[in-house]
């Protein structure tokens, strides 16, 4: 299974894209963390690893503008600080 398969099974996570193979990891991480349920998040972390997922997330939130909802951003900041510190 690939991370694109997560989107194929739940296309409503990225409803604005038709070609799931062209999605990069950062777009999928953002969609799953923002709109997925806990099982989706766990599946993503299982495929990418918690450190890689945390690294992608931290890079995305480091800029001035972010697409994460504030409560999602806060939750996963705390989550990754606990389970993937120093990445």
Can you tell me about this structure?
By secondary structure, the chain is mostly helical. It has one domain. It contains 5 helices and no strands. The chain has helices at residues 3-9, 25-35, 38-48, 50-61, 70-83. Helix 3 crosses helix 4 (50-61) and helix 4 (50-61) crosses helix 5. The protein is globular. The chain starts with a helix and ends with a helix. The mean pLDDT is 94.
Task: Give a brief outline of the structure.
With 87 residues, the protein is an all-alpha fold. The protein has helices at residues 3-9, 25-35, 38-48, 50-61, 70-83. The model has no long low-confidence stretch (mean pLDDT 94).
Q: What is the structural class? A: mainly alpha
The total beta strand count reads 0
Question: Could you say how many structural domains there are in total?
Answer: 1
* CA radius of gyration: 12 Å
Which short descriptors sum up this protein?
5 helices, globular
Task: Explain the layout of strands and helices.
Elements: H1 3-9, H2 25-35, H3 38-48, H4 50-61, H5 70-83
Helix pairs in contact: 2-4, 3-4, 4-5
